């Protein structure tokens, strides 16, 4: 049990840090309405950021959207085109 406490503390610290980073960046991200999103479907790249169970259990998926799990943001963000508007959404 004593060996698990440091790992648990590190995991908690990393989780809290990631929330802080996401919250800090959230203020800089523009929010748009569903209607604005619909008007940009032909030109923007849509990223579905729902978690595994929320995504896989849903029958509502936007055709053409890519799946971009928040846990793997570094991986998928490196592969998307930088010359398009990117709309990230979740439910």
From TrEMBL:
InterPro entries: Rhodanese-like_dom, Rhodanese-like_dom_sf. Residues 1-26 form the signal peptide. It comes from the Bacteria. Residues 40-91 form the Rhodanese domain. Keywords: Signal. This is Rhodanese domain-containing protein. It comes from Desulfovibrio subterraneus.
